[in-house]
Amino acid sequence: MYYELYIDVFFLENFMLDSLLLLVVNRVMNNGRSYSRILLGGAAGSFLTCLVVAVPLPSAVRMLVFCILVSSVMVCTGLQIMRLSQFVQAFLLLYAAAFLTGGVMQLFRAYMRYASVFYAAAAVSYVLILKLWKVLSHMYRRQSVILRVTLYTDKAEKPLKALLDTGNELRDCYTGEPVNIIAPETAAELSDRIEMEKGFRLIPYHCVNGESVMKVFRVKKMCVHMEEDRWIENALVGIGEESLSGDREYEMILNPAIFSG
Fold this sequence. Notes:
This is Sigma-E processing peptidase SpoIIGA. By secondary structure, the protein is of the alpha+beta class.
């Protein structure tokens, strides 16, 4: 018994699936990689898959290459992952997305002899995975605490909603103080010249894309409205690179360490 394999069709099918999986991981990790970079990663993964299939290898070796080498090349090429922690996260997300995509494909197994059904199932799985991630992210945010906060500077007073995020452990590397993060548009409402505000400076921090710097300054005081108002003098505030919440559910991310001082 032997099988005929049309390598061009096999390449295109794998290219599409690999690219979709990388798109999912890119969206979930908020990496911001371009479509051309994603497609390059998909092409690299598909090419290696075809190569491994064409070359006679022991089953165990072939499986090892499929599971580790091909996926690693896809992640590094398509997402430009450099740090080990990010690589592990992307690698696991890739397999989680592949598992969910395989589940959707299984539903249409009886009709897979039609190419149009195959492509439609792949597109449906992509949409479903992103919708599922959005729902899970929303549920997680709802479990977090949204508080009312008022920021005071010498020139302005700004009431806003803030997310108390236990995952925000950002600190000023020079003073060790906790940093609270606001959106760029919120900073513009507080001052038209942030660089002139008290304590303005740049601090390094780790982000998804690697190392970056953040503008920080001090507000005169900050009031967190709880059952009993909590006042923080000379609170350190950092300016994020983009809006913190697309639906404006919150405009600030509080560092829980401000309550321990």
